[in-house]
Amino acid sequence: MILLALTMMAAEPSAEALKLGREIAESGTLATLLPMMRDDEIGKMVKDNPSLRASEQAALRRTADRVFAAGADKLFAATARAYAEKLSLDDLKAAAAYARSPAAKRVQAALRAVIGASMGVMQGMDFKKDVAAAYCKESGKLCAAAQ
């Protein structure tokens, strides 16, 4: 019984594992995607509120930066913990070494453009409708959802 309880208890990740997990998280897709989302959302807020003067827009952007930093810190901490819990220390070290490599730096530099290109294609996709259309063709059912 005690052995079962011990095996069910998750070991707390080491400080080294958490540090490596954070390094990996801060060099991954999320680190590129979050600022893109922030910029898009704040741009929409400014556009949707044309009565804001330039100084108010600047204040709004400062507020957004502060809120974003706090939220990003929570997301990176959670991502770091997940990496630290799911990967061995050797795997974390290897992934972090890759993240520091010249090839990874080039991937990171290209990521914003790559995500933008992918999002452009995704905007024209409707997975739910496409599945309904394929299923309608195969079974004659869900055809209304395919319209």
UniProtKB/TrEMBL annotation:
Q: What is this protein called?
A: DUF2059 domain-containing protein
Species of provenance: Sphingomonas kaistensis
The lineage, from the top, is: Bacteria, Pseudomonadati, Pseudomonadota, Alphaproteobacteria, Sphingomonadales
Positions of the DUF2059 domain: 73-124
